[in-house]
Amino acid sequence: MIKSFGILYAGHIDSQHIGFQATPANERRFDNAAVARALTDAADIAKLADRLGYDILWMAEHHFQREGFECIPNILMLSVHLASLTKRVKFGCAFNIIPIWHPLRLAEDYAVADILTGGRVIFGVGRGYHTREVETLGGPLLDQEANRSIFEESIELILKAWNNDSFTHQGRHYQLPPQVPYRGYTLQDLTLVPRPVHHPIQVWQPIVSGSARGIQFMHQHGIKGMVSGVDDDTIDKTFRSFRDVGAQMGKDLELGQDLCLGLRFYLAESQEEGIQKARIFHEEGMKFSGPLGFSPNLTEDQRKAIINPKLYGSDFFPSLEEEVAEGVWTCGPAKDAIAKLKDIESKYPGLEHVLINIGVSTHKKVYMEQLEHFAAEVMPAFIKTPSHRR
């Protein structure tokens, strides 16, 4: 049963010049003042989310994005600041890019954020998907096996550091502590200072390929999964795989349990109006995700063409109408959004968490209006109206 609604803000620039006919993403470069505004926009969105009764504001860690899509390089630092401006909303890491961190530095930073915010930061981990940021910051990405290896070992090390008074680690990538003299003795173990104080610590990870190996690792370490931006068939396949692999490992999970589902909504008086108003944000989102391989409906020719779509025209690419038909987007009246979510509840009785993902290009004014409409017209069908919204 759906009990929790979150939202995603990845830190995009509020630009009026978007869509297939606008400047190609690779030719676009915002100045420092523009990208810095993403942080102040995050503050406005956090305060609104807090007032409206959303449970979690999920934010994304990314680097070097002068094109204006994802401009938050450190979720934990921003979360500590946003917690000081709000009362109850939590802040989710979607996601810390593990291969570019030293795992103990990340473990420390999260512990500090956990303590300073009173447990209002939710930990999230990912392997990365931008070669520019991962390879630049010293982590492998092109070598996927190396990427997975350092990711898995880093997670094990982070959890070990959080859950033990002292620890040692001998792995492929990290041998800790180093055998060095320290204050009159040879270093034998380490203690993370500080460790998180709010337990249990939730750890979330995106499920992208849905490989059995990846899902097994998640279950082994108690990691919850996020599925977002995919069609109905992919949702069903991924949810069933997560449950079935868990069952093979001795876990008795309801379908949807320990998962969060990210959905795209645009509320309007009719489906036609919703599609018309959301189309430009859909187009800009495809310009962002297509070259990265996150628009599965694109053919290889379309994936190459999306780098400069105005040379080809809108009809060359999958339409928003197609994605509405496939369940990737829901556009139209609140009753359609409620029906969509009620159908999801009936199919996946273990699902508690829904993430509203409006997109990495939505104008701030539109974004905040949609959050207000959704909170007022859709959320009350699933959760009791919080007292602070009455």
Can you tell me about this structure?
This protein is an alpha/beta fold. It has a single domain (4-94, 207-389), classed as TIM Barrel, CATH 3.20.20.30. Helices cover 40% and strands 14% of the residues. It is built from 12 helices and 14 strands. The strands form 3 sheets. It has an 8-stranded parallel barrel with strand order 1-2-3-5-10-11-12-14, surrounded by 6 helices. Strands 6-7 form a two-stranded antiparallel sheet. A two-stranded antiparallel ribbon has the order 8-9. The longest helix has 21 residues, at 32-52. It starts with a strand and ends in a 13-residue tail after the last helix.
Instruction: Note poorly predicted spans.
Output: none
Q: Which topology does CATH recognise?
A: TIM Barrel
Overall number of domains: 1
Q: Give the CATH level 1 class.
A: Alpha Beta
Give the second-level CATH assignment, the architecture: Alpha-Beta Barrel
Number of helices: 12
Oligomer: single chain
In angstroms, what is the radius of gyration?
21 Å
* Morphology call: globular
Share in helix? 40-55%
Task: Please give the number of β-strands.
Answer: 14
Estimate the strand proportion. Answer: 5-15%
Instruction: Write out the strand line-up for the largest beta sheet, numbering strands in chain order.
Output: 1-2-3-5-10-11-12-14
Please identify the structural class as seen in this structure: alpha/beta
CATH superfamily: Luciferase-like domain
> How far is the first residue's CA from the last residue's CA?
23 Å
Average residue pLDDT: 96
Spell the H/E element sequence: EHEHEEHEHHEEEEEHEHEHHHEHEH
The major β-sheet equals:
8 strands, parallel, barrel
